[in-house]
Amino acid sequence: MEIRRYNKNLKDVLQLLEGRFTIDEKYEIIVKDILSDVKKNGVDTIVKYTQKFDSASFKKEDLKVTEKEIEEAYKEIDGEFLEAIKEAKANIEKFHKKQLRNSWLDYGDNGEALGMKITPLKRVGLYVPGGQGGNTPLVSSVLMNGVPAIVAGVKELVIATPVNNENKINPYLLVTADIIGIKDIFKMGSAWGIGALAYGLEGVLEPVNKIVGPGNIYVTVAKKILYGTVDIDMIAGPSEILIIADENGNEKFLAADFLSQAEHDKMAASILITTSEELAKKVEKEVQNQLDKLERKEIAGESIKNNGHIIVVDNLNEAFELSNAIAPEHLELEIENPFEYISKVENAGAIFLGKYTPEPVGDYFAGPNHVLPTNMTAKFYSPLNVDDFIKKTSILYYPKELLMAKADKIIRIAEVEGLTAHANSIKVRTDEK
Question: Which residues are part of a known binding site for Zn(2+)?
C-alpha cells in the first residue's frame, strides 16, 4: 500500500480497482454440470456433493433441520447474543417497515381506473454461508435477507446452508433463523444448494421464486446462471469501503475501519481519501500496527497489499468527485459536519456519517440493509429492500365511451408500428353495433 496524490485524472484512480472481480469461465462450466445434476437427480445429487465436500457421513435423513436441533441450539448460545440479535432484528424490522407500499387505484374524470396491485412473492430462498466449517456463521445475513422478506409479506422462506463435518448447523445461525420465524432450514451448500432452491427437490422442497444471500464463487455463478428461472438479489463482488476524511480524522478510527473490510476477503478493497497528507501517513502506519493484531491478518494483509489505497486530494470537492466515480459499497464520511455533504454523494451503497458510525454499525445492528451494490454498481443499483420481495401488477379499466373517444389515436400508434392486429383489436369494438 502506498500513499498517492490525486493527479486530477479519474481514469488513473479507477484503474487501481480494475480486474478485482472477474468470473473465470471454468467456474461456469463446473457449475452448469452441478446444476444439471441437481435438476436431473435431485436429493441424490445433494447427498453426493455434501458427502464429498462437507461431511462424509451425510445421509438423506440429515437434509432438513429438525425441531429438536433448533431446541438444542438454544442451549448452546449465550444470553448476551440472544439479547443483541433480538434488538438488531427489531431495528431492521422498524427500518424496513417504512419502505412498505400499498396497492392503489386511481379513478379518472372520464371513468377510467388505473392502478397498481402489490403482491408479495410466495416463496423465497435464503442462502447463508457456513463460514470456516460452520465456526463463523453469518447470522447477520439471516437477519438482513430474512427480515425485509417477512416485512414485505413473504409467507414461505427457506434457508439453505452448508453443514460442518458432523452434519450440524451452527447453533447461533439456527437460533437467529428461529427468532425471525424461519423453520425450513436445509443442510445444503454451494452451487448444489442454490440449484435445489431453484429447481426444488421432489417430495422434499418446493422451488422458490427468488434466491438471496451471499456466497463463494460457485454460489455466485449458480445464481447468475439461474437468473430467469428464479429472480436473484444481485451478483455481488468482493466487499469494499471508501472513507473520506479531513485533517481532523482520527488515525486509529480510520485504520480500524480500513481493516474492517480488508479482513473479509483477499479481493476486498479499502480506500482512504483525505485532504491531509499528515493524516495519510499516520493512517498508513496505524494500519500496519493494527494489522498485526488481527486473527485474519493474512487475509487482511493480502487485501491491503493488492487493494488498499490512500489518496491525498486538495479539497473535499475532489474527494467526492473520486468517490462518486468509484461508487463504493460503503462510504464513510469522517469529516466535520458530515450532514452538510450528503447532497454531494451521488453513488454509494450506504453512507455512514461521522466518527462514531463505523461500517459495522450498519453490518449488524442499526437497521438499514447491509446487502449493498458492489463493484461500482451503486451507480445504478440499490441496497436490498422490501421492494425486492414484492411484485407490482398494473390495473387498467376503460369504459366504452372512453375507448370510443380515444380509439383513433390508439389505432394510429399501432399502425405506425405495423401491428395491424393491435389496431384491429380496437377497430372491432368501434365497429360494434
Answer: 261, 264, 363, 422
